[in-house]
Design brief:
Elements lengths: L1 H27 L9 E3 L2 H27 L5 H8 L6 H5 L2 H23 L3 H26 L4 H26 E3 L7
Antiparallel strand pairs: 1-2
Amino acid sequence: MRPPFLALHLTTTLLLLAAITLTAHLLSRTTGYLRGSVRLIAPFGAVAAVVVVMIVGVTGSLAALGDTLFPASSLSRALAQDFSAGSAWLVRWRWTHPTVAVLASIFLVWILLRARRSHANGDNRKLTTLVLVLLGVVCALGALDVGLLAPVWVQIVHLLAADTLWVSLVVLTARLTMQPRSLTSNP
């Protein structure tokens, strides 16, 4: 039961971190939003981006558990284990995290570049650039993690970078999707 509980734990941790991040972000704004005074712009893209990153995180937690419980002695041995029918399912699952991460990164870059072009706000453009840079850092650390056969210190740095990416993405999606209603518009 450890893998499903680990996935559930990571999901709830990400949601809690998102709630704390949103609370801090909204409280730090110079103008607040009251219930009914906010309109959502393109919520599908924002929700999709957040869900995709959560899926990457869950597959990562399971890959890290597989690396911890069944360490490999070399990269070629690790790859052989990933596709061996005799390996534990957690080991055979390891390849899904890098695959999902690459596909999710392509999707996020596409969404972020569209957001960057459509929102002229300088602060949002800077935050979008930060999220793109953090995405690159997380991917590089993931490649380093695979190349070095998942030492704990790289896993921790990779997780810290991924959490920083998560927090930045949550703030960016809040800024891009939550807009104040015009005072002249009808509710």
